[in-house]
Every structure is written in C-alpha cells, then in structure tokens.
Amino acid sequence: MNVDELHWFVVLAETEHMTEAAQKLNVAQPTLSRGLKRLERELHAPLFDRVNNRLHLNAYGRIMLEHSRRGLAEIRAADERIAALRDPDSGTVRLAFLHSMASYLVPDVLRRFRLETPRVRFDLRQAAGHEIVELLTGGRVDLAITGPRPDSGDFGWHQLLTERLCLVLPRNHRLADRRRINLAETEGESYIALGTDFALRGITNDLWAAEGINPRVVFEAMEIATIEGLVAAGLGVGVVPMPPPHRREPAAVYVSLSNPRAKRPIGLAWPHERPIPPPAQRFAAFVKAGQHRTYGETRDAQQRRPHE
C-alpha cells in the first residue's frame, strides 16, 4: 500500500467517478483502476459498490477514507517538519478560517506574520465552523481561526477577540433609527439566519430562547453576507457580527444589541492529539504573543458609529 495509491483512493472517494478522478490526478484511467483493484486486494474488501457502471463509496470505503486522510495528513506533516528542521524559516502553515474572518482579521494576521517570515507559505481554507472542526480532526489543517470555541475537548484554544453581535435591518425598517435594541423587541419579525449546523446559529438560538422568542425563520443561508443581502432586499431581519465599515451592506442598517450574551468569541484552535509542524508552531506563537490585541482594539474602534 503506497502513498500515491492512498492519495488516488481519496480523490476517487471524493469524486466517485473514475474519469473525473483520473483527470484530477493526471493519471491514465486504466492505471487508476488497477491501483484501486490492488488496494482492494490488500484489504480483502471492496471499497466501492459498482452500480450501473458508477462507483458508490460503501461502508468499507468510508472507513478507509477516514484513515487514509489521517495517514496522508501525518505523512505530509512529517515531510513539513523535516523540511522545517532543515530550514526553520520556510515551510507551510495549513490554516482554516471562518468566511467572516476573510475581510479583516486573517489578512491582517498574515500580513504581519509575513513581514517577519516571508518564506513561510500558507495553505488556506475558508469554511464554516463545523467544517473547520472536521478539517482539524482529519488532519487536513494544522490551525484554525474560528469561533466560538469548539465543544470538543480535543482542541487547544487561544481567544483573540470577542465580536459583538448586532441586528441587521433594511434601511426603511421601523427600528432602523435606533442606537441600541433588545432582541425581545423583534418578536414577530421574519428572520434570515444561518443553517442549524452553524455555530453562529447556535448562539442566535440561545439569544432567542433567553428572550422567549419563537422566531419565524424564512430562509437559512450559508454565509453571513447572504443574510445581509437578503435583509437589505427587505425579506426579514438578521443577527450578525458587527462588521467593519468597509464591508457593510450599503442598503442595510446595523444596530447594536443590548442583550448581554450577544457576542461571539473568536480564537485560534489546534488539535491536541498530534504535534503541529514547526512553521505552524511559529505562527501560533506569533498570534498568541499579543498581536491579537491590536485586532480587538481596531474592531472596537470600527464599531463606534451613530447607530450604536
């Protein structure tokens, strides 16, 4: 069982299509097919069900996919650690981050870090909070900037800042001229919210429950920007982190929430179960050394505006 064939299997499992996988891997389809047959012979089990000339990952295959991803991640981490020992100022940091961190926090962190270590490379992934947990658990990233803290005790955590949550409204809404508002005052409003898998939706659910609100959610979005856009179109209201001025939806108004628990902690997370490569350790140390204090101060300054 060689590394190349494990990688081939992972790509094939993700596509469930021999031709597409061969194109992605830049190998001949017969070569890929023979590699799969060798792997199945070694495991004494079929990894796919063949139905009408299509591949469908079966129970054996799902187990193999989980362990193959972890094994490949460990091999990649070993390569990176060896490379970093040979040249401590180079290497790759595999970092995942929330979509909402892409407009202000993550670019600022990377810019500051690269001023000190310009030869370190980054493999970046944008994802939702629950997807980030899967990326960390599966070894596909070393670190993550996420929030709130993952529920599992399998992760380390260093808090960077706390985002205040706000109510986003259409500009012509009856509450749009308020400086602050309690969520209880939105009883009966239509809501645009993230899907139930998202951590921010969990925080929002807790806020609704604390105020005894039975919300009418008319649409579940995949990104905060979608919530803001649909609110601006007049389809409802939403609860989102207070955005920096440069990325606010121009046709919407953002009003601070007075609810004490209307906040989202953002931090750096990493897996306890395995060591992270030296470049990632260096990046984590840089973030934890106090650089984040500027981000929190900047965030507070950006939020001081007439509608607070």
TrEMBL record:
Entry keyword Transcription regulation: yes
CDD domains, per database record: PBP2_GltC_like
Family annotation (InterPro entries): LysR_HTH_N (IPR000847), LysR_subst-bd (IPR005119), WH-like_DNA-bd_sf (IPR036388), WH_DNA-bd_sf (IPR036390)
Keyword annotations from UniProtKB, A to Z: Activator, DNA-binding, Transcription, Transcription regulation
Entry annotated with the keyword Cytoplasm: no
A GO CC term attached to the entry: protein-DNA complex
Gene Ontology terms for molecular function: DNA binding; DNA-binding transcription factor activity
Organism domain of life: Bacteria
Domain HTH lysR-type: 1-58
Pfam families xref list: HTH_1 (PF00126), LysR_substrate (PF03466)
PROSITE patterns from the UniProt entry: HTH_LYSR
Function per UniProt: Required for the induction the katG gene for catalase. Involved in the response to hydrogen peroxide.
Family per record: Belongs to the LysR transcriptional regulatory family.
Protein's UniProt name: Probable hydrogen peroxide-inducible genes activator
The species this protein was found in: Mycobacterium saskatchewanense
